[in-house]
Structure formats: C-alpha cells, structure tokens
Amino acid sequence: MILRRALLLVCGIAALAASAAMAVFALGFALYAVLLPAWGPAFAAGGVAGVCVLLALLGGLAAIIAARPRSVVKTIAPEGFAARALGLARENPILAAVAVGVVGVIAARNPKITAALVGAFLAGRPPTQR
Which residue, 13, 39, 44, 113, is most buried by CB atoms nearer than 10 A? Predict the structure, then answer.
C-alpha cells in the first residue's frame, strides 16, 4: 500500500515535470516565432536564450531569498522538568523511545504504583468547567 502510494506520487511528479518542460519548450518556439520577422533568425534565437537566462536568474534569486535563514528571537522562559524532558526527547529520539519502553514495562509489572501515580496526577488538577 505504501509502495503503491509512493509510486503514484513519483509518477504524478514526473507527469507534472514533463508537462512543465513541454510548456516551456512551446513558449520558447512561440517567442521565437514572434521575434523572427522583426529580428531575423539569429537575433530571435538570442532573444529566446536571453529570456531563458533571465528566468533562470530570477529562479536562482528566489531560491537564495527562500534559503536565507530568518533570525529567530528566543524568549527565555523558566524551564521545568517537563520542558527539559521534551527538549531531551527532541535531541535524542532513540533514548526517548527506550525511556518510554522502560516506563511501560514498569507500569505493566506494577499496576498499583501506576494507579497511584495517575491518581495523584489527576488529583492535582482543578475540575474543568464546561
């Protein structure tokens, strides 16, 4: 199922790329046909090449602007245990998965402790208003 979906995605991207290439090719011929009577064959071909270079430069400029990292102002907030744990989990996802597995095994072997911890956690919160 996943392989079929990936294959369909690749086929769709290839079809879009092929149609875009054909459109650019056709527009190049159309521009050449427009410039040919006024400029002659050599200058018309040069005009088409010049337009292609201009479009490539604009695309490169857009890519450079998009790739420039934006400055991010970090707000300094007091970190608690949960924030530090989430930061550690983001930095080391394998370590976080192992820790979750260990906690799961402990919870499965000691249901009384798990029930006491969940009860204490839920008792500390005020009731929600609906």
Answer: 44
- What's the rounded Cα separation, in Å, for the pair 125 and 130? 15
- Angstrom distance (rounded) from CA 107 to CA 110: 5
Write a three-state SS string for 32-80.
HHHHHHHHCHHHHHHHHHHHHHHHHHHHHHHHHHHHCCCCCCCCCCCCC
Per-residue pLDDT of the chain (130 residues; tens, 9 = 90+): 788 888 898 999 999 989 988 988 999 999 999 999 999 999 999 999 998 888 888 888 888 888 876 666 666 656 677 777 778 788 888 888 888 888 788 777 887 877 887 777 677 656 666 6
